[in-house]
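User: Fold this one for me? It's RNase H type-1 domain-containing protein.
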Amino acid sequence: MTEMNIFMTKDRRHQLINQVKQFIKNTQSHKIINIKETAAQIGRLNFLRTQFREASLYLMLIDSAKTRAVKTQGWTGMMVSPLEALKELYWWIKKIAENKKQQIQDPIPQATVVTDASPQGWGATLELDSGEVLVAHGAWLSYQIHWTSNRKELQAIHLGIIAFARVCKELQITNLLIRSDNSTAVFDLRRLRAIDTLAPAVKEIYLASI
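Assistant: Here's what I get for RNase H type-1 domain-containing protein.
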């Protein structure tokens, strides 16, 4: 089978690093810039999501600031990038510099995690190719009881991955298929994107899985 990988050329990588560094300088100096300029930078980086699948998770703060600015000033307005966005920008510098090749074809799952969230708690099973099934479950904490069903389902996936992490490491399982009856949660994870209220949960799941 032919293996296909995607990565940046040397010139493209150099160009992007310079652009992000300039954006960092603008952010550090609280420089007022065009909203369209910020949108263009977001677009250039988001274009790399094929190589960096978690790309949208590290554009959330910048994109939220841009969205707020557009609501108050329109697309022709000006804005200042928040200092909190610096950690996202530094992440991009590191990733672009590394320029790791990304295999285009999706890997074959080695096991399946099935999750479910109820009003009282969560449950998850790990189904191995050998036919064995492992089970994990727990009750919601007091502050989690009033979460939305989407937020609870994402948390169930997060807790399931954590619960089975040791087993996956021992069995050298690196590719999991996640199944949930909550289509919103699965859709958000597939794209590694979500609305602002769910985005932190999607990011937690991604970080727990690497």
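One thing worth pointing out: The helical segments are 10-28, 35-46, 60-73, 86-98, 149-163, 165-170, 183-191, 199-209.
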